[in-house]
Amino acid sequence: MERAYDENVFESLAGPLRACEVRGIQVNLGRRCNMACHHCHLEASPDRREEMGWGTMLEILRVVDRNKVASVELTGGAPELNPRLQPFIIELRRLDARVKVRTNLSALLEPGLEGLAVFFREREVQLVASLPCYLEKNVESQRGEGAFAKSIASLQMLNGLGYGTGQGPDLEIVFNPGGPFLPGSQGELEALYRRELKKQYGVTFTRLLTITNMPIGRFRSTLQRHKQAKEYLRLLYSSFNRGVLDKLMCRRNVSVDWDGNLYDCDFNLALGIPLAGPPFKIGEFARKPLEKRPIVTGEHCLGCTAGAGSSCQGSLEVGRK
User: Model pTM?
Assistant: First the structure.
């Protein structure tokens, strides 16, 4: 599968997959999370202790300042649980960087974090909120009992602050399939989410993003347990879409782990697959070697090129900006 993926890419691009530029940095603040979702590629949980320290954050701030990095996305785990999150965001905004936080929604209701949503609103932080389905039973099958009610409460709170209403920052919602299949049409799913969330809970949002489950982490373990891993990889391979190669996130971004190591994407980060060559640490960040670098690929990359394509920004289908 791995060689076949590279062959498909080489045939499509007349060469290997390479980065084009560095538009943004995705920062993983740690693996600690208030949940342990069944599909989590990072296998985050309340028991994980990996956490980015202030020294690494200062190195990222220096890189953002010197290189005029326009966009920084903060993820985890649950990034809200890193105690240095707020001062980090304050400094990023002082440097005029656009800041986006990926949230599982329920973390916003954790004890001691009650004012975090207001903090985000005051700093114009955009939010990407994971809600695997608009049906309670489907969400709880992935996230556990009570997760859906907390998610809805958080969405209602965010709407009250102007998020996703047109009167405040963007509130994007992320859908991922509940099993070994590709997501449906992003446009059709967005219409369903809008109708059901508004009708049942009065919730609005900016846009829906569909993300394919990567065959790594807990999702891969589930596939193997049910003897579905090979079948799922065949599905991804047979759905290869050369038309989305130009829009792959790894070609225009770089990921930074909690310890300062650099990766092509969040999925390579999860697997511990380093860049093909230096710089390997955030403190060594340099645009020239990062732009045009060869992307390190594997069979998991089939998830990003299957069907309409997938990235942290959702579907890569033609016509999507």
Answer: 0.94
